[in-house]
Design brief:
- The protein is α/β, with parallel strands linked by helices.
- Helix content is 33%, strand content 22%.
- The protein has seven helices and nine strands, in the order H-H-E-H-E-E-E-H-E-H-E-H-E-H-E-E.
- Strands 5-2-1-6-7-9-8 form a seven-stranded mixed beta sheet, sandwiched between helices. A two-stranded antiparallel sheet has the order 3-4.
- A hairpin with a 2-residue loop joins strand 8 and strand 9.
- Helix 1 runs antiparallel to helix 3 and helix 2 packs parallel to helix 3.
- The longest helix is centred in the first third of the chain and has 12 residues.
- The radius of gyration is 16 Å and the shape is globular.
- The protein binds S-adenosyl-L-homocysteine and magnesium ion.
Length: 209
């Protein structure tokens, strides 16, 4: 990754330590050139989209960045991960879309990163395009995390990558649902683990559709 863009990504607002961001970038560089698009669930202010988007650009494909931009449960007022300046006062709800757009613009990735603004599951229900890489970093509650797993992982093409963030084997380090869906992926026999960096897990789909 270019030094300047790497510094930009590290400074971008969001929840991804530099070593995990670089691992995400490296994983995404492994997709076939000119192949199927990548998709991330959970973009927030665009930090992970810079890592994935730069790799997508280098591999001549695109990244769909899916988020309703209203924040997860844990981003709402009164919760641990709330950032009050991200609330749109006119609506009284969070709105991370303006910051996301600025991040993608400033990273020079507007030709590669395509925002999908909406709720994950209705989009998945109508989604037919195979994915070279799926990054799951959306709602971390039990219901949304398992729903994302069930609706989106079948879209990963054979040989494609499934990357999950915030996987904490020790409950003392964080919430269970991302770890649970990581276990489900391995137990399904459809995915094998390729790499673990911090709370990031890179899995590859090994079965045929
Ligand atoms: N990947 C980001 C962090 C994502 S935070 C980074 O690198 O910084 C989780 C995001 O998931 C939030 O922006 C929230 O709005 C989004 N989200 C949660 N549930 C969602 C759902 N059901 N559909 C779409 N987006 C959702
Ligand atoms: Mg995360």
């Amino acid at each position: 990754m270019d030094q300047e863009l790497r510094a930009f990504a590290e400074a971008a607002r969001g929840f991804m330590p530099p070593d995990e961001g670089l691992a995400l970038h490296e994983a995404a560089l492994g997709v076939p050139a000119g192949g199927s698009p990548m998709l991330e669930i959970g973009s927030y202010c665009g930090k992970s989209a810079v890592y994935l988007g730069d790799a997508a650009r280098q591999r001549s494909t695109i990244l769909y960045a899916l988020d309703h931009h209203r924040g997860s449960e844990e981003n709402q007022a009164g919760w641990e991960w709330h950032e009050p300046d991200l609330v749109d006062p006119a609506v009284g709800k969070m709105d991370t879309l303006p910051l996301f757009r600025r991040t993608v613009h400033d990273a020079g990735l507007e030709g590669t990163v395509v925002a999908l603004v909406g709720d994950s599951i209705p989009v998945a229900t109508h989604w037919a395009t195979p994915l070279s890489l799926l990054f799951i970093d959306g709602g971390h509650g039990a219901e949304p995390a398992h729903a994302d797993f069930e609706h989106w992982t079948p879209k990963v093409e054979p040989g494609g990558l499934l990357v999950i963030h915030d996987v904490f084997p020790d409950p003392a380090d964080g919430g269970r649902p991302p770890y649970e869906i990581y276990c489900r992926a391995l137990e399904s026999g459809r995915f094998v683990e390729e790499r673990a960096v911090g709370s990031l897990r890179v899995l590859r789909r090994t079965d045929a559709v």
